Every structure is written in C-alpha cells, then in structure tokens.
C-alpha cells in the first residue's frame, strides 16, 4: 500500500488545477480535515477557492498556509510523463505541482493527522490557510482570507508556508522574509513625425535615453543585515511606431523594484517622480504594488524550525529573504512570525517538475516535530 503522503500528493497532482481553478483539490483536503475534527470556513471569491480551517479551542495558533493552484504545464510533449498523471521514477514523484506546492500541502496534512491522533486534546490551535490564487493574480486568494480573519478578530501566532524554500538539500534554507515588489508602467509622450524631418517631431525614445541611464545606474540602497540591496529591472520597452519611416509619438517603459526594508513604496514613487521632472517629460505613470517587504526576526518559530530540521536532517538551515514574493506578504498583516519551509526548488514551474519521495516523507516529519515543540 502506498504511504499516505505519497498517495495524497498523487491525488492532488491528478487535479489539473491551473490557477485559479482548484478543480477538486480543496474538496479532497476539506474531507480529510473534517474527519479529524477541523472546523472549515469557506472564503471563496469569484472563481478562486479559499478556506480557513481550525482545530482546537484556545491557546496560541499555528497556521499552515499553501496553494492548490499550479502554473500551466507548458509543452506537454516535452514532459517525460504526463504532467497531471503522477508517476514515480527512480524515487522521484513527477507531476505539475509536486514541488510547488501540492507535496508540501500533503506533508502538512499528514503531519497534522498524525499529531492529532497522538494528542487529540492538544494545547493551542492548528489552522490551515488554503487558496487557489497564488500563481495567478493573487487578488482573490490569501488576501481575502486574511481580510476575513482580521474582520473577525482572529489571531495567528505562528505561520508556516510550504513554498519550496530549499536550494540543494531539504531544509538547507528557511525563508524568514521577502522583499517588496512594485511595478511602474510609464508612458512618455513625444510628437509623431517623418524620420526625414526630425525637426518637426519629438522622439520620445531619444529623449528618454538619459532618464533610462539614470534609472539603471541609481544605487537605491546597500541592503541590510536581513535583505540584499534593492533591485530595479526594466522589463519591457516599446513604442507605437507603425513603420520604419515614422518617429513614434509614444514610448512605453515598464520597470519593477524588488525593495527591502531600507525603502518603501512611497519613497520609490517620489524619487521616480523627481527624476522624471528633471527631463521635463510629458508623461503618465501607473504604479502596481504587489506587496510590501516583511521580516520575521529570530523567534520561537524560527528556533523551533531550525531545531526540527537539525534533528531530522542533520542540517543547520540558513535564513534567507531572497527570491520573489509569496503570500506571506498578505499574512504578515495578521501574523509577525512567518517562515517558508518546503522542498528543493530546482524544478518549480519547470518541465518535468518532480520531488524526491524521501524528502517528501521527511518534510512531513519536520512539520510534525515543529507542531510538537510549539503546541506543548
């Protein structure tokens, strides 16, 4: 008989839950959680499936957070196995979502099942925050769950997100924060004209060169003890030119900041506005704030997670805040102690995504040990 963690992971992978469509993943999870006494609250929004689950009456709350949605499989012909047909090859379980993050969710669920079986009247509360809108726009997912919990004056003392945080070996990295992310969508207006008569036109591409150079060369900060330096990247540039003999009338530039706690989105906006004013542009700009930076400093959750990883793997994890954004940016509004602890991230979003079976089993034991140490 297949072990419970592998079996549950396979069930979840079999659901073609491309964001934000959950398919039947959350039905599978809710059925298991109800069976062990969890109270479920459906907080679904539009086409996004969300739920909050709670077990226990009082005391400190440890929440596990995750997402059942996945990114598209890409070119299926390039997969060695069908992406939504879980198959084990040489001790690796293949399938879209195996690492990001259906494997982690299965490991969490099984860890909680084992713990409650041993201690049905445990101290504190166990909870789950599950969404199907993490890989997509993230507008109707965890953010809506947290809004609901805040409105109902819920409290979370500790939160573990199952994102694939490990780099080379299971448990070698624990994320204890993330940088913020803000995108600028800038349009610089010129005057369209014929390339043979540049004196009658105003080329926004030529006029923006100095601004772009300043944007690229500006040092925003040097980072700090917890975060690397703020990074700016131009992600798109195009004009509305319709022919090779037409000077364009508009230039669109999109750029993104991954910023640390040395900055905030207000400072970034003001600085860019000041830079633009130097060049006297006619422009419009739209800002999209995806998330602010958050940081969990040394705490009982972090020390407990480090101890649990050490006990079960012999590895001492590094604390890190690198990488992209995660749903921790929403959960941080309710909880100050957040970590991301999950499997090796080398195949996430890739063709032939897979997870080591031994790692998956050990990850569940790590989660269970954290529960035991926190809810004593």
From TrEMBL:
Binds 2 Zn(2+) or Co(2+) ions per subunit. The active site is at residues 69, 134. Its cofactor is Zn(2+); Co(2+). Zn(2+) 1 binds at residues 67, 100, 163. Zn(2+) 2 binds at residues 100, 135, 349. The keyword Zinc applies. Its EC number is 3.5.1.18. It catalyses: N-succinyl-(2S,6S)-2,6-diaminopimelate + H2O = (2S,6S)-2,6-diaminopimelate + succinate. It is an enzyme of class 3 (hydrolase). Pathway: Amino-acid biosynthesis; L-lysine biosynthesis via DAP pathway; LL-2,6-diaminopimelate from (S)-tetrahydrodipicolinate (succinylase route): step 3/3. PROSITE patterns: ARGE_DAPE_CPG2_1, ARGE_DAPE_CPG2_2. Residues 176-277 form the Peptidase M20 dimerisation domain. GO terms for molecular function: succinyl-diaminopimelate desuccinylase activity. The keyword Zinc applies. Keywords: Amino-acid biosynthesis, Cobalt, Diaminopimelate biosynthesis, Hydrolase, Lysine biosynthesis, Metal-binding, Zinc. Catalyzes the hydrolysis of N-succinyl-L,L-diaminopimelic acid (SDAP), forming succinate and LL-2,6-diaminopimelate (DAP), an intermediate involved in the bacterial biosynthesis of lysine and meso-diaminopimelic acid, an essential component of bacterial cell walls. Homodimer. Belongs to the peptidase M20A family. DapE subfamily. This is Succinyl-diaminopimelate desuccinylase. It comes from Candidatus Providencia siddallii. The lineage of its organism: Bacteria, Pseudomonadati, Pseudomonadota, Gammaproteobacteria, Enterobacterales.
């Amino acid at each position: 008989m297949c072990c419970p963690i592998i079996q549950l992971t396979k069930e979840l992978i079999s659901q073609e839950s491309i964001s934000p469509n959950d398919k039947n993943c959350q039905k599978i999870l809710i059925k298991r959680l109800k069976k062990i006494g969890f109270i479920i609250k459906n907080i679904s929004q539009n086409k996004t499936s969300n739920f909050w689950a709670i077990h226990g009456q009082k005391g400190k709350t440890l929440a596990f957070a995750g997402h059942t949605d996945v990114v598209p499989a890409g070119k299926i012909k390039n997969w060695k196995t069908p992406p939504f047909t879980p198959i084990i090859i040489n001790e690796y379980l293949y399938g879209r979502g195996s690492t990001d993050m259906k494997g982690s969710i299965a490991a969490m669920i099984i860890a909680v099942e084992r713990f409650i079986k041993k201690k049905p009247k445990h101290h504190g509360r166990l909870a789950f925050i599950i969404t199907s809108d993490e890989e997509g726009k993230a507008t109707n997912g965890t953010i809506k769950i947290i809004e609901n919990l805040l409105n109902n004056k819920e409290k979370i003392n500790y939160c573990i997100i199952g994102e694939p945080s490990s780099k080379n070996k299971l448990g070698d990295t624990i994320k204890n924060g993330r940088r913020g992310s803000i995108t600028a969508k800038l349009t610089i207006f010129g005057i369209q004209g014929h390339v043979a008569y540049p004196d009658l036109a105003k080329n926004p591409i030529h006029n923006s060169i100095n601004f772009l150079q300043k944007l690229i060369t500006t040092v925003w900060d040097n980072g700090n003890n917890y975060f690397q330096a703020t990074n700016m990247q131009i992600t798109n540039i195009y004009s509305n030119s319709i022919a090779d003999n037409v000077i364009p009338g508009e230039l669109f530039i999109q750029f993104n900041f991954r910023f640390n706690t040395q900055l905030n989105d207000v400072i970034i906006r003001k600085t860019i506005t000041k830079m633009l004013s130097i060049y006297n542009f006619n422009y419009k700009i739209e800002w999209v704030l995806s998330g602010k930076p958050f940081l969990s400093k040394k705490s009982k959750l972090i020390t407990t997670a480090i101890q649990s990883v050490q006990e079960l793997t012999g590895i001492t994890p590094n604390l890190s805040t690198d990488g992209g954004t995660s749903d921790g940016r929403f959960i941080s509004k309710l909880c100050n102690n957040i970590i991301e602890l999950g499997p090796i991230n080398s195949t996430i979003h890739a063709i032939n995504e897979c997870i080591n079976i031994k790692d998956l089993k050990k990850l569940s034991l790590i989660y269970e040990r954290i529960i035991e140490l926190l809810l004593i």
